[in-house]
Amino acid sequence: MPILLDTTGQNPQMKDFHCETKCTWCDGCGDYGIWTAVKRALVELKIEPWQALLCYDVGCHGNMSDKLLGYRFHGLHGRVLPFAAGAKLANMRLPVIAHGGDGASFSEGVGHLVHSIRSHYPITFILHNNGNYGLTTGQASSLTWQNQPMNTSPNGIAEATLPSMDFVFSLQPTFVARGFSGNIKQMTEILKAAMKHRGFAFVDFLQACPTYNHFATHEYLLSKCYDANAEGHDASDFRKARALAVDTTERIATGILYQNEEIPNFYERLVPRQNIKTQAVDEVKKYDVSKLMQEFV
Amino acid sequence: MSRVSLKIVGASGQGINSVGEILAKGLKRAGYCMFGYREYPSLIKGGHASYQLDIDRAYIESTELYVHILVTLNHHGLELNLADLKDGGIVLHQTPHWTFKPEELELIEQKHLKIVELPVDEILNKMGARPILGNVLIAAAMWAMLGQDKEMLKTMVGEKFAKKKDLLEMNMTCIDEGFAYQDPKHKKLSVQMPEADSRWKDHVLLSGSEAMGMGAVHAGVRLYAGYPMTPSSPLLSYIADIQNETGMIIKQAEDEITAAQIVSGAMLAGTRALTATSGGGFDLMTETLSLNGILENPTVFVLAMRPGPATGLPTWTAQADLLLATHSAHGECTRCVLSASNAEDSFDLMPIAFNVAEEYQISVIVLTDKQIAEALYTQAPFHQDKAEIKRGTRLATKEQLAALKPSDRYDPTSANGVSLRWLPGQEAATFAAQGDEHDSAGTVNESAVNAAAQLEKRMRKSEALKESLPEPELYGNGGVDAPVDILLIGWGSTKGPVLDALKSAELKDLRIDYLHYTYMWPLKTEMLETLAVKAKKIILLEGNYQGQLGMLIRQECGLKIPHTILKYDGRPFFLDELTAALHQVLQSKEKTSRTVLVTPAYHHP
What we know:
heterodimer
């Protein structure tokens, strides 16, 4: 069971997530679309602001942490996933979304991404994929195209571009989706499915960065992206999903690319928690250790 | 007869721990206070390791450098450990046809050592038993030598093998054989044991790590995340081993940063969560420590010290990370540093650490070291009515929650710097737990006025916290009202050997007080300053090079402690070497002195 929330009788509106802080993203930034889709997905799932925990890494996307309501966390660069997982494990009733950029998630914190997929924490991860380090003024990330001149790499980067989708699929994920920041409706649907997913949901949102990304622009993404689900893609076929996700030469497949609800998540696999109905947050009290002491007499 | 010490040596993985544990538990049940100490190199099989047991009628918490009995499971002990024996000591070995070198024979004669060979292979062959049973045979021979009751040993071994019936019978025969063996040269060889005292029977015999693990359970810890690193690993192992009893969520993380972040997320969500590591792992956790400072997120980190820098001496002990605990992590924020000294406070400090963390919404670092983490203590059953669970300003009722505004979370006007705390998932106004400098609701705010106000809010907690912490504990025959001539100052695992040294024949009649620090930061110095004015001689004892507590004391109150006794060779203070060093410093007419103790090479190959 991914969500233990009882949303009966709840009817949150977009305005309930509205906050007075003004957005500071550049004109045309993909974060506006993602920001809207996140709020819309929560509203359509009837989740009230106080019921959710939205976790942000450091980067342009992290500036969303005070641009909407809901319980929010804004942490260290690259480290959002284990923090979000810790919060979720302590309170499984809490829907938890973790946001991270391509810089943080495929460089500084790449180990956390690997082990979060492997651990199968029941959380949603949104990759704000704009192909560069935006907030530090446009340096190349490991997902920047090779030979692309960037800030601090005027001759283009010498390193190979990390094949992110192939890499993610190599980790045996159970939910992989891709969206485009210009298509809010599709992103909303993806997020709703991701939040209902049993385990770790990897959501790659390709996002325009009008200031620093001059290769995968909004127009470029608009012309390349298509809805694979609408074209009849079978999201239960791992091999086909992987091939579709990896090959972006002609067109870029978006939508829910792979989904498997059969694999138990991390919490479900914990033997000591099998018959416990409470959450770790409900269980803080003084425990009698007399029985434990017996072994040492 | 005073305390007796015996040391079992052999290769790592040869079973010295199992012999040591059988003897330790048995002797405790027979009415002795035990103190167990392990030395081993950083490898799994081979290498030379030891398990020493110190035995007394009175409470002890230290190890002697020179022992009464040496038990060696291989021939290396005959080469490497002869010099560890006291005059008249006994060596029990199992190496057939061993020839000592001339200088060894000289040492044997000089020290009047008694060398006893137990023909283990011969006896086992006769029984048709597997080599592993040699450990029980040795334990039984020792048991007889210590004049203990055979049936008691049988009961204990029976408990250990209760689930392996096939092995049980063979074990019992081994005990009979071990008891029956008589050395042809030294008939009825025995050691004069102190008189037994039945009060120890009901005590528990456990390591500091096990005590700390139990303390964590007692404190309401419901999630543990950690990455293996000696000497913090025994805590992870113990907590993981009892997970089916406790129902705790256990996560072996992919690295220490992950462990620290998982625990921080779980604490923000509102449970109690713990992680432990050693120096190198703690270095990795320090950015998270800084994050929790600005989030005002309560967290508890156990830092189990071993000698550094870098990998250093992985399986040895040190008290060299005090300044790391008090000063690491970027930026300025309030933190609390506590230090365990033995099994008892390893248990007691867990609920205290979580209470301080939640009451002040800060990180608490609990120091321990390899010595505490792995030594065996004879401990009275823990007092379970002492601890309270205090969760600070955390709000729970519907009315309280309904009245909240987002700006209550980091309200900078609170007098002691502590603002209201509520949890994600509680029906209330929401806030951002914000790693950027923020206003009272967690909204990013870079204005100068706000930055100063929020920093001051977080730092104000230091004053309130310092006020609430207890002064250091004073042991000895003086007191604040009747100060004595000599004042010793120390912290952590130094306490055990210092208190035992003060009971020794050489020092027991002198007017000496020992001031022991458990609450390391913020550092209280009022009591120390009062005592220091009256004392004729002040001596600082620490397991590091710089005298780190001395540095903090000087920083906080200007007092420079004139005499230091330091140790930084990876070994704890041994009782006999410490007693001798104290005696020497007390005799000295020098105004200042620095004594460094290094354990002689022949004790530690």
